[in-house]
Amino acid sequence: GIQVEQSPPDLILQEGANSTLRCNFSDSVNNLQWFHQNPWGQLINLFYIPSGTKQNGRLSATTVATERYSLLYISSSQTTDSGVYFCAVEYPGGYNKLIFGAGTRLAVHP
Amino acid sequence: DTGVSQDPRHKITKRGQNVTFRCDPISEHNRLYWYRQTLGQGPEFLTYFQNEAQLEKSRLLSDRFSAERPKGSFSTLEIQRTEQGDSAMYLCASSPGQAAGELFFGEGSRLTVL
Q1: Cα–Cα distance between A95 and A98 in angstroms, integer?
Q2: What pLDDT score does A91 carry?
């Protein structure tokens, strides 16, 4: 089946720093989503981005489907950005079923 | 709020007991998914419904697990004869059912088996 790899697995930042999270996937995908899991466990939708670039405030994402990777950029990080960031992909014919990576655990210190 | 709703949020049970979780998807979403997440891991797919039909089950879904979506609206996930290894967060998600549609997740139901 399709493999999803996220890097780095752990990231520690000082408040105000910028960061880039990467997601590599092993095959063609119909859909790619980025989530932030909050301390209570809920997955918060950040981006639905099968290709191209999107921005939402301090966050932006880029997916290069032909090269099978996606990047999540966090600028001017805040302590509230702490948590786990997941990339998830849907393969063609997957009925929107998402396959998740193992996540990047981000800690932003004041 | 019209997001995905799950109940209960937390469940503590003794080994061998049965537990049931409920998921109410976003209104008019015809696809519903159950995932399981253990500590330090990403969510893993368990099963998927298109309306009331259960169309796919993961190998993770042993015969002690059963899921239903009787009227194509809410869904239940039952675990019989719980084991300590069943302790996890159970996540429900729904999507509109488009060819490539966005999934939205509920807050999850955290199960602890003593």
Answers
A1: 9
A2: 82
